[in-house]
Amino acid sequence: MTTATPVLDALAARATSLDDADPLAPLRERFLLPEGVVYLDGNSLGALPAAVPPAMADAVRRQWGTDLIRSWNDNAWWQAPLRVGDAIGHLIGAAPGQTVAGDSTSVQLFNALSAAVRLRPGRPLLLTDPAHFPTDQYIADSVARLFGLEVRRIPAAGLPGFLAEEGHRVAVAGYSPVDYRTGELHDVPGTTRAVQRAGALMLWDLCHAAGALPVRLDELGVDLAVGCGYKYLSGGPGAPAFLYVAERHQAAFDHPITGWNGHSEPFGLSGGYTPAEGVGRARIGTPPILSLLALEAALTAFEGVDMELVRAKSLSLTGFFQDCADTLLAGLGFGDVTPREPGRRGSQVVLRHPEAYAMVQALAARGVVGDMRAPDLLRFGVNALYISHREVLDAVRQLREVTTDGEHWQERFRLRTTVT
Ligand SMILES: Cc1ncc(COP(=O)(O)O)c(C=O)c1O
Ligand SMILES: Nc1c(O)cccc1C(=O)C[C@H](N)C(=O)O
């Protein structure tokens, strides 16, 4: 079923004028996106930055192939975790010398939460969000078991109330600025203040924030933060994660995975561990150099980019998505999930529909790539560096067609009858 042309024409005209006025539109050339694909899954795996393939070719052929082990010095491989850390720090409001890149978010979370518990001895509670991404909850549970603490799962909105009663017992609170399912943006400054007023440490998981919106870690006085490199930072599948340790905590930062790269004299090869000065102590073992160099090249896509403009465009894209959905999906059984107020929205729009899975599959078959989260959420992430308003309209228009033409039913039937 096609949509009434005047309605679509009006939305198309609006998309065109928004795109024409978009100061970030030229950034799209910094990415290699396949023809005919509308990519709304950069909140899971960012698109490929154009700078990455030549950087990889150089890393593999020249640095590894020719320079061989000399590259640790000659191509500054040894410095890569701190160099890439600082490049990420620039995007999350962290002055140099506080961010290290490497390992996975899960590993960094484990290190950061454990170190936080050691920084707050005698406080028996570790707080996290019952809606937090599972790995954050699992690791909180594990750290609590290791240190004899108790995890309390308190929704972000309920934190101030909880802290007023029990704050003196809390060692650390681990939360995400953006809910990975709903796309809701929490109050990062207010939560940080409330946690710290109670004498506890604030740990933010920036997986859905870094590269998507301005994060002012230093300005807000955040204690610790972690995040991944493969979503809005577009560092590639399995890209190294990062850890931020505010300078004031570094001297006492005592993380449990004391690998030799974090030693004050790694090539002294002594049998006892003496941590390096500064955030370098949070290094662990030999880092994945090829992945670090891919991430470093990917970050050049942000060169000269003002994160305030990224945020403004991201809000324009998500707001426009919601407007398109209001107009084109009305009466088709979709529910609203992501908050309407711009100040409460991250960089994704989420709709609810009982046929979410089949719909996302049917959309993907048409070249519109989003994802779903069980049981019934359709999730569409927008990366302001490479997504346009025209693509947003195209995605919602195609979702309307999939639904009205019943393509998701065919998809559902196909999925049920496919033998794998
Ligand atoms: C908030 C959050 N934390 C952590 C992760 C993943 O952790 P890891 O990079 O270790 O797989 C994700 C997504 O995969 C996430 O959304
Ligand atoms: N990290 C992922 C992976 O290795 C495979 C598939 C998806 C992911 C994700 O990033 C999921 C993501 N954190 C989410 O927001 O649901």
Automatic annotation (TrEMBL):
Highest taxon of the lineage: Bacteria
Transmembrane segments: none
Modified residues (N6-(pyridoxal phosphate)lysine): 231
SUPFAM superfamilies: PLP-dependent transferases
A Pfam family per the record: KYNU_C
E.C. numbers: 3.7.1.3
HAMAP family (UniProt xref): Kynureninase (MF_01970)
Family membership: Belongs to the kynureninase family.
Description of how the protein assembles with itself and partners: Homodimer.
Protein name per UniProt: Kynureninase
Species this protein is from: Streptomyces stramineus
